[in-house]
Design a protein that fits this description.
Length: 286
């Protein structure tokens, strides 16, 4: 994986062909498989919130030069902009990298819903963060491979080799997560924005989001969440850089939890997944 990326970066000229993705984690997977055959551009760059981001006029012009658009699924940016992207670029090939992923289910199936227990996304729909899980990462990687083969069938063997290297890295990441999370005594965590639903589902964890249907919790809901955190012995409260930390800090102070900043939208997929597992296992990140 790292060899592939280094060889791509060492090339003296950028690839002439371009594909566009929605968010940075997609670019991580796409660049790993594309190697030196394609340049990959993100519409929502580092530090921006895909629930609120509007592309610049320059980005919309540059999009017309892409061979394809790789979408990621039920995420705010695509819900707002995909129709316009299609209309402005009728010849653009569009691939859905979430195809085949099971978005159903909750990280605590079978429990009665109550404040602090939902995982509804900011737009009132399904949590789109499939990449924040091993199963989701594998699905994205496979769909990315299929997309590049469809675009450039002559280099199928090249993309397949890169995919196998990426899959090996995903499997190594999974081993690290299992070593950290399988023996956890406390399996409940709090997070401001519910971005780890599918990680929780995979590893038998319980995610308690502060944000409810994309809104700040009421004082009564906040009180209930603090009580739930105490009852479950929660040790970690996750915050994300694009959201307000006020309520997360309040909960951490009231419960004695460790406040940990994470970035599920990071380009460094492997590094971020390991950081999250370290925080859950040890109450801190390296």
């Amino acid at each position: 994986m790292w060899v592939t990326l280094l060889s791509a970066c060492s090339s003296t000229t950028a690839p002439e062909k371009t594909v566009t993705v929605t968010i940075e984690p997609q670019r991580y997977f796409a660049e790993a498989i594309a190697g030196d055959k394609y340049t990959v551009k993100s519409m929502v760059g580092a530090g921006f919130n895909p629930e609120e981001y509007d592309p610049t006029p320059r980005q919309m012009v540059d999009l017309g030069k892409s061979e394809a658009y790789f979408r990621i699924g039920p995420i705010g940016f695509e819900q707002v902009w995909m129709n316009r992207i299609r209309e402005n670029n009728p010849g653009l090939r569009i691939f859905d990298l979430s195809e085949g992923f099971d978005f159903t289910g909750d990280s605590h199936e079978g429990e009665e819903e109550e404040p602090g227990h939902g995982h509804t996304h900011a737009h009132g729909g399904t949590d789109p963060h499939l990449w924040s899980s091993i199963t989701g990462a594998k699905q994205i990687a496979y769909n990315t491979l299929e997309a590049f083969i469809a675009l450039d069938p002559e280099n199928k063997a090249y993309y397949t080799d890169n995919y196998q290297s990426l899959l090996q890295e995903i499997n190594e990441t999974e081993k690290v997560l299992h070593s950290e999370l399988d023996t956890l005594q406390n399996r409940t965590f709090i997070i401001y924005h519910p971005a780890l639903t599918y990680l929780a589902r995979e590893f038998g964890l319980k995610q308690l989001p502060i944000e409810l249907d994309g809104k700040e919790p009421s004082p009564a809901q906040l009180k209930k969440l603090i009580e739930t955190a105490r009852d479950n012995g929660v040790e970690v409260v996750f915050v994300q850089q694009e959201f307000d930390k006020k309520n997360a800090e309040l909960i951490a102070n009231e419960t004695g939890c460790t406040l940990v900043s994470i970035n599920p939208l990071s380009y460094d997929w492997h590094g971020e997944m390991v950081r999250i597992s370290n925080a859950l296992a040890h109450g801190q990140v390296d």
